[in-house]
Amino acid sequence: MQYAGAALGSLWFLIQGFLLLLLYIFIADGIAIFRGGSSSRNVPFIISGILFWIPIQEMIQKSTTILTENRSIIKKSGIGLDIFYLIPILQMLIHVFILSIPSFLYMILINKFNLYSILVYPWMVFTAFYLYPFLRYLSMSNVLLKDISPIIRLFLQFGFWTLPIIYFPPPNWANILQYHPLLPFLEIFRAILLPEYFIQLDYMKIIIYFIISYIFLKITSLKFKKMIPDHL
Amino acid sequence: MIVVNNLTKFYRGFSSNYQRIFSVISLGLFSGTKSYFALDSISFQAKPGEMIGIIGRNGAGKSTLLKILSGVSHFDSGTIKINGVLRPMLELGVGFNAELTGRENILFNGLLWGYSKSELKFLENQIFEFAGLLGYEDQILKNYSTGMIMRLGFALATANRPDVLLIDEALAVGDASFQIKCLDRFKEFLAKGSTIIVVSHDLQLMGAICTKILVLEKGKSEFFGATTPALRKYIEILGRSESKLSFSEELVENFSIELIDENSTTRNIFFIGNQVSLIFKFQFKEKIKRVTAGFQIDDNRGIRVYGINTYILKNEILDITNDCEYKVKFTFPLNFREGKYSIGISLHEGDSHTEGCYLWKDAILDFEIERIDQPKFDGLVYLPTICEWSRAGDKK
Predict the structure, then answer these.
(1) CB–CB of B27 and A224 under 8 A?
(2) Cα separation of B204 and A110, whole Å?
(3) A85: which of A128, B52, B104, B319 lies 20 to 30 Å off by Cα?
(4) Cβ contact, residue pair A224, B108, below 8 Å
(5) In chain B, what are the domains?
(6) Is A198 part of any domain?
(7) pTM over cut 0.90
(8) ipTM confidence
């Protein structure tokens, strides 16, 4: 529906993601080579990071405006808010699937593809499940504060550079970056995609993040959820 | 069937942007300091085959009530019991995409109305036929006129019969013939056992088609029952509005004008045939020998419906002094057809303002006339008419 009337239709979705993937690989890999590193060592690492980050970033941005963009439908159709929170998640999963095609093709080419890689899809569903309360909170906050998109874009930039997506973080940053709420999800995603990628997984951290996410969902359901339709 | 019992909705708002930010930071635990009852203990019941009208002034809570019934808004206390499939028809054409064809819009938008895909495939032809849009199915919506979109929206929203239908103003759309089709469809739904709840400002239509009417005022139920007393109650509420004006001019000061009913209540909505009084009060700054006070009533198209003055009525105001207030009262019946009217006033010399004008104001006061008890009639004026007939040569 989003691309209705556009000359290339939903093909834009594929082209946009594919070009972004190429651009990040080109820049990051170029920098690595310039510094005297190895190209082939960098590319799978960058692909896995981008394949995780771009759909997540799109999902967060889309979630922020999903209620305000569909204000008239929500107010006039009676279908409720809940279905709208799921739209960015569904789009994210489609995005992951589309971006994974060239990524997997590349992995096959360099002989690093394994069948377990397709587990990234359920893992992204799991990640979306974890992020759902925060995404819902962003959608609702945007209704009250009118337009928080510029701040969200800023936070996303911050999130991008504080996660090891296109670069290996310096060892002295690791102590701080280990608390990034998306880091364990990115690390597991990478481990699924790259056979030789080694991680020391702190399961406790994931459990704590999920508990925080659940408490967040419960608190925002107390009053926030109920007052949003009145301000839409 | 729909049963609403003691429904209460408390609205919480913000008096500043800081409060909004604080509310977001506190995850909604702080919900603003501005608050009022949007709905206060509303109760009513609608049985199958009944059409319930909801009327009230702006801000009375009509749309809030519909939004709560349709599940868009939450409520704080009370109960709502709805039996069967509910379809809210709060706005026609909402969610239509201008870049998609009529057929595609029916398919995607139909899901919003609660239709299944197979149902939509089955109903597609009927929808276009009802909307009078056969042959336009594969045109993109931006090539449709507003009227065509409304017709398509209505045909889609009413393609099959829901048990409970909620309508916000979209009672009859399109041209006159399509409006009749819309009303016929509602009658068909009612006959088959649907319950219809409708919000509209069209009192005449509400009076004609509703079984009962709920009158809301500032979130409270003022009346629920038969249509004629409900409409009277509503007019009485509207009558509480001020229809009074005062100002000063170069020669005239403390000029005030008001339109009152037989009970001396200032109102701006009346029924056809109501006896009203238009009262001017004014003071002159100078002594003047003779003054004519007059008024004229124009309809909403600017057509002069009536005009008269104290000169024509042979009741000129003489020997005006500058130390006292003058009051002029015109009493007359509002035997005009229903609609919106405005009153203009003048203070001048002689027969008309061309002889010397002290004050002239066009459309200074607005009022409305509604029809409830009178029969439908043609033309600008209502002449109470008695009709008798007899037949000659009857066998005794």
Answers:
(1) yes
(2) 77
(3) B104
(4) no
(5) 2-236 (3.40.50.300), 244-370 (2.70.50.60)
(6) yes
(7) no
(8) 0.80
